[in-house]
Amino acid sequence: MQYIQAFIMGGAICAVAQVLIDKTKLTPARILVGCVVLGVILTGLGLYQPLVDWGGAGATVPLLGFGYSLAKGVQVGVAQDGLLGAFTGGVTGAAGGIAAAIVFGCLFALLSKPEDKSK
């Protein structure tokens, strides 16, 4: 059942983003930034945690989940280090995902054979 819930949650988030791309004049970059900011705001208001509890990876993997990771990191950082944690907590909270993206990006760049697209 967890897989179905994650699929529904992730699919709903992606469907909303796709509707914004198709039906508005917002650029994809603005929509992506809006998703991250919305994830931070919803986490700060305590509204995103129930979605994470229900949808699991379907809620934490999309860009709303990146905002969730940043906000949770800031909350933990402030609890541990006070005001300094507001500046360092987000980086610490999202470090694992960012490191994985860099490692896998480099790995696939080494394993793939890039071709000239102008042919």
From TrEMBL:
Cleavable signal peptide: none
Membrane-traversing stretches: 6-22, 29-48, 83-111
Domain of life from the UniProt record: Bacteria
Keywords: Membrane, Transmembrane, Transmembrane helix
Keyword Transmembrane: yes
Cross-referenced NCBIfam families: spore_V_AE
PANTHER family: STAGE V SPORULATION PROTEIN AC-RELATED, STAGE V SPORULATION PROTEIN AEB
Name the record gives this protein: Stage V sporulation protein AE
Organism listed in the record: Butyricicoccus pullicaecorum 1.2
Lineage summary: Bacteria, Bacillati, Bacillota, Clostridia, Eubacteriales
